[in-house]
Amino acid sequence: MIIMESKATQEQIEQVIKEIRRYGLKADVSKGAYRTVIGLVGDESTIPFTHFTDLPGVKEAIRIETPYKLLSKEYSKFYEGISERTIVEAGGIGVGGDELVFIAGPCAVESKQQLFTIAEGVKRAGAHILRGGVFKARSSVHSFQGLGAEGWEEAEEALSWLYEAGKKFEMPVVTEVRGESQVDLVAKYVDILQIGARNMYNQDLLTKVAKKNKPVLYKRHFGAGVEEFLSFAEYIAAEGNKNIILCERGIVPIGKGKQYSRYTLDLISIPVIQQETYLPVIVDPSHAAGRRELIFNMSCAAIASGASGLIIEVHYNPAEALVDGRQMITPDELKDVIDACQRIRKVVLPKRNES
Amino acid sequence: MIIMESKATQEQIEQVIKEIRRYGLKADVSKGAYRTVIGLVGDESTIPFTHFTDLPGVKEAIRIETPYKLLSKEYSKFYEGISERTIVEAGGIGVGGDELVFIAGPCAVESKQQLFTIAEGVKRAGAHILRGGVFKARSSVHSFQGLGAEGWEEAEEALSWLYEAGKKFEMPVVTEVRGESQVDLVAKYVDILQIGARNMYNQDLLTKVAKKNKPVLYKRHFGAGVEEFLSFAEYIAAEGNKNIILCERGIVPIGKGKQYSRYTLDLISIPVIQQETYLPVIVDPSHAAGRRELIFNMSCAAIASGASGLIIEVHYNPAEALVDGRQMITPDELKDVIDACQRIRKVVLPKRNES
Amino acid sequence: MIIMESKATQEQIEQVIKEIRRYGLKADVSKGAYRTVIGLVGDESTIPFTHFTDLPGVKEAIRIETPYKLLSKEYSKFYEGISERTIVEAGGIGVGGDELVFIAGPCAVESKQQLFTIAEGVKRAGAHILRGGVFKARSSVHSFQGLGAEGWEEAEEALSWLYEAGKKFEMPVVTEVRGESQVDLVAKYVDILQIGARNMYNQDLLTKVAKKNKPVLYKRHFGAGVEEFLSFAEYIAAEGNKNIILCERGIVPIGKGKQYSRYTLDLISIPVIQQETYLPVIVDPSHAAGRRELIFNMSCAAIASGASGLIIEVHYNPAEALVDGRQMITPDELKDVIDACQRIRKVVLPKRNES
Amino acid sequence: MIIMESKATQEQIEQVIKEIRRYGLKADVSKGAYRTVIGLVGDESTIPFTHFTDLPGVKEAIRIETPYKLLSKEYSKFYEGISERTIVEAGGIGVGGDELVFIAGPCAVESKQQLFTIAEGVKRAGAHILRGGVFKARSSVHSFQGLGAEGWEEAEEALSWLYEAGKKFEMPVVTEVRGESQVDLVAKYVDILQIGARNMYNQDLLTKVAKKNKPVLYKRHFGAGVEEFLSFAEYIAAEGNKNIILCERGIVPIGKGKQYSRYTLDLISIPVIQQETYLPVIVDPSHAAGRRELIFNMSCAAIASGASGLIIEVHYNPAEALVDGRQMITPDELKDVIDACQRIRKVVLPKRNES
Question: Residue B180 and residue D178: Cβ atoms within 8 Å?
């Protein structure tokens, strides 16, 4: 990270960028009101850092040791416009501030009516953002893959329902982009682009999605450590897009015997991520637990651990859902979850804000 | 499980027990005011169950499918004195009811003064039970193993301090029994016998501790699934001791890269265990997190997930502690934790009690 | 799976396919010399199977219970052209037969000269197929991403070197396709398309690669169980491409403390996969071990466990390599590995062939 | 580690030991023909090492960084009687040399006849050491716990059969000591004391077993990393007993879905352990795989990875076995395994011996 003097000229800034490129690296430039900060994207271990401090206009050159430099707390200290606890703006809703954010909706969009009924239900229950899957990531080719699997026209139609529902019920909308070929289409219709857990390591998709300059909801893979998760989030940041909402959704269970939940929810990761990076982090209790009767407690626990919000699957009649019916809750149950979470937030927020 | 008719005679009961023994099994007998229930300990798969229903005085013979039959919800339905949600009485403190229970104290007892100073601190902060390690389970033979390692006399002296501190500050006390040879001695001085995570699979120790007929604080091993945890708890129950407090304290981390906490805290296990068994379950955030700054949030999350209490390591000056100083909090910080947890309990309790 | 009578007419076959589509499923048709077999792609749980047996020309309708039906041993019994142990033809080299296959080359193609020097070395050492990465999957955006990252022209040039080296040293070539946008380009130059471990779950990439109808080298993700691995391989098979070479390359380490290897090599998966599916499976000891001094023993162990071959990273001067130098071996060391493996193969092959 | 000068007097040695004790540590003394080496047991981080070099007769004071100092390769360099690759003598059989060692026998001793029939079979097949469980570690209290569970007399009788079978068929014998109370009895009858995987962390048992000064067969726990495994083995070494045979027997599976084997066999741990310590390491394919049809390949793979031997469960009629019948092989199958392993050993041994 190169910190320019406040009175550095445009020419001096460009000279530094040129120099960075000469070493085969890319520059991540933040021009603030007071000063310009230039992050280095690429392997800086081979670069003579002292050389940069000799360039005119350079105030300081700081090496950041983590593999997620652009997202680190340290970086935020110098980077204008990024605070130590960034609020990601997503269609008018701020994620990461004092207010909790609840994202809710059906696992898969099945029909316009199904979507609108659920959208109305989750809005009434207090949700802020509407979710709904069109391109579903499924572990079996023999399972329902979402309406997106039926053709581009069907996909576009389903996306337009999402868009309309968002307008009608005044909620920004989010949906998963499962493959590179879907990025352009999906970005036309939704406010937030989701990258699913199974695509956490898909760096080509990350790069392509990042370039849309829309907020990204980015889920941790179930086999990834926290360091890996943040290192791959850096692929998004390296494209200049730091509007990233991180999401914990469970890691693979270990141990022998019966599995009572789909995944192990790693809630220690929440305060850890908040110490390591300036990004907001939310939790998906639905996929982690995989069973309706666990959602209430795990939602409460997620908020108690410090999460900035939740993403929850909701259906007016879970038994009817084409995908994941076992883990959906009703709009009424969602209301209970939200009420409880809001009360818990009041307990844990003062501690967060004093730290 | 054999359910006797309410008017079954003592002779008839004895005939059933004799019959059970004839098959090489043991009988777990509960004589209630209304009826007697007889659990089978051993491999019942080879037994002709219908044969038992033909015996005089037998009302019903029910096969329970889990490997933790004596601890299962199903068993509690017929067994008098055990409700679906048992409250374990430990030195006058009930664990598992509506009221949260906080167990706190130093990781290791280092001196009488250290113990008494901390005991006073945790009492003032609102703790109910005092903990303090005399025989420490350590991962390196080259680390401090507790005063118990210095000889039986030193061990007994340290245990007597625990006893006195408990009396003086009116808290029951708990300490770990690390090996079989320590059981008799430890049982003389403490109210609750703890079996540590590393001894979860030590069936000889489990059996020996169970026979003391004192409440047992039993920790899940970091490599154990929930089914294994409950299956081994059954070793305690099979000795007729069902005063078991289960404790989740983190499982081994998976994934590559830097570890930001000592273990992964598996909070989904809390509601899962409460569905599977009638025993209370508490959480040890200190060993799971391993870092002071994570304790507040993980304590709150544990209570939000439904835990009946916490066991927390406290020191008036964590930097001075001979063991685990990195994860200890001060009495003042403990007070903050307890206050926050009590408020969260009020949020999640109604849901528990209606289910 | 619908098995047609040997004398079933084309019309009858088409009626069955039409019927399958009417239920919203796809048909995987194998017209053999003796009879036609039709696999069902999609959720067949909702289909009245008996209905199919009533259609004219249908001999039998069999439900296969695993989520990897098209790849199961059971499927191969009826499907002509697929034996219980399929040999995948890759540029003239058969993978999965009695002869071991060794794939070797640099981790990343760095220059024409580097590639040709290594290609000559591995050929001399006894390798059959040449590997070389152009689009590298890396865990940090700040690391070298392969020549493919420098632009499409540079990527195409590097691919053409691979093509030329393959021709010159008479080895088919394999390289990783990391993203969907690279599929067309890469397929023009190489004999085998590799899908890396991090993309195991990338179903859009799988589908796109499968359609090229070239052999696919498909690596298990480090967080995936065997069932998941095979279930996702089914995405390739569902496109009609069953020329799949499976590859075990290590799973995430568990447990606390120092990591002495990059991953845990799961060699039990080798005989397990061979029992479950008719596809060949090879092992990548380089990425699993991550340390040169472990390669010899782990290569031998892989072949002893029954693997049909290995993929190994080789460099004439590992210390110079831009990527993964720590785990590369020299051509001379490769020769030792191949010699030892060939001798071990002779020990374990008779057992395989009698089973 | 304090290395004394070759001409150091007994008095000087004793002064060093006294000094070590003054710091609250224990001394592990090795008096060789040429010089005396004194290892420190306890936390040496607080000790002023330079102080020791000032004492008369001291040649060098070396800090060893690993938590398994007494077992480290570094330690063996100075310690007389311990080579970099120690051969543990167990009843006349050397484990860890060029010759492979095969330990075989029934999972549980069921009767004298069963034991003798199997003993004869494994001897004929080429086994060197006889195994047989008397005190069984079982995951359910409702399963058969071995004859040891029926009373001390029955246990002693079963142990005496083991002793007799060992004499008759000229094989040293090994059995598991599951709890502290069994140590004295078991040590009277067997040549090697086994500590099972579930007791890996049971430091009181380790200490008690170590003091018997018999060779110890010590199994890695399924949730333990290699560093932890070696750190706990150090508890045995700290009692002055370095006759330890380490054994890998599988770690907990990760990932979702069907489990096709009981555990994941971590064969990379074999060469890793051989680099880190001077102790021999063997493999238990029976418990790792849990299925008969995987034993042949996993045995071969274990030897190919460099293991010094195997411990395998054998029964003349696996279907009849009271415990683990699913994973037992017959004496004839054992012969095939041993023959194949011997041939593989010839392939991998030269590489080991040149390194």
Answer: no
Q: Whats the size of chain B, residue-wise? A: 355
Using CA atoms, how far apart are residues C100 and B162, in angstroms rounded to an integer?
Answer: 67
At what angle are helices D112-125 and D331-354 packed, to 10 degrees? 50
SS3 C306: coil
CA B111 to chain centre: 26
Residue type, A188: K
| φ, ψ dihedrals at C247, nearest 5° | -145, 125
For residue B150, the chain D residue with the least C-alpha distance is D24
Tens digits of residue pLDDT in C186-219: 999 999 999 999 999 999 999 999 999 999 999 9
- The strand pair at C36-41 and C2-4 is best described as antiparallel
User: Is C254 within 8 Å of B259 when comparing Cβ atoms?
Assistant: no
Residue A130's nearest CA partner among A106, A96, A156 is A106
Q: Distance between CA B173 and CA A31 in Å, rounded?
A: 60
Closest residue in chain C to residue D306, using alpha carbons only: C297
| pTM for this model (two decimals) | 0.94
For residue C86 the two structure tokens come to 């399929």
Tell me whether C213 touches chain A (CB under 8 Å). no
- Provide the β-strand partners of residue A51: none
CA distance D89 to chain B (A): 25
Residue type, B27: A
Query: Do A315 and A321 contact (CB within 8 A), yes or no?
Result: yes
Give the span between the Cα atoms of B112 and B157, in whole angstroms.
Answer: 9
Q: N- to C-terminal Cα distance for chain D?
A: 26
With residues binned 3-state (H G I as helix, E B as strand, rest as coil), the percentages for chain A, rounded to 5, are 45, 20, 35
Tokens of B100: 């949260």
Closest Cα to residue A91, out of A190, A188, A237, A236? A190
Q: What is the pLDDT of residue B232?
A: 97
**Closest by Cβ to C272, choosing from D260, D266, D347:** D260
Q: Cα(A46)–Cα(C241) distance, rounded to whole angstroms?
A: 44
Which other chains touch chain C, taking contact as 3+ CB pairs less than 8 Å apart? A, B, D
Mean pLDDT calculated for residue range C220-229:
96
- Domains, chain A: 2-63 (3.30.70.1140), 88-354 (3.20.20.70)
State residue B174 phi and psi, 5-degree precision: -135, 140
For residue C329 the two structure tokens come to 């071996």
Search chain D and give the residue with CA nearest B143.
D43
Indicate the pLDDT class of residue C323, thresholds 50, 70 and 90. Answer: confident
Q: What is the percent of chain A where pLDDT is above 90?
A: 72
DSSP B115-152: HHHHHHHHHHHT-SEEE-BSS---S-TTS---GGGG-H
CB neighbour list of residue D5: distance below 8 Å, 6 or more residues apart: D35, D57, D58, D59
Q: Beta A88-90 vs A58-61: how paired, if at all?
A: unpaired
Q: Residue C146 and residue A228: Cα distance in Å, rounded?
A: 20
* Surface-to-core class of residue A177, CB atoms within 10 Å of its CB (0-12 exposed, 13-18 middle, 19+ buried): buried
Mean pLDDT of B168-189: 97
Quick count: other Cβ atoms within 10 Å of Cβ B24? 12
Contact A107, A326 (CB under 8 A): no
Give whole-number Cα distances, A117 to A122, A159, A314, A328, C248, in Å: 9, 16, 11, 15, 46
Q: How far apart are the first and last CA of chain C?
A: 26
pLDDT tens-digit series, residues D273-329: 999 999 999 999 999 999 999 999 999 999 999 999 999 999 998 888 877 788 999
SS (H, E, C) A70-107: HHEHHHHHHCCCCCCCCCEEECCEEECCCCCEEEEECC
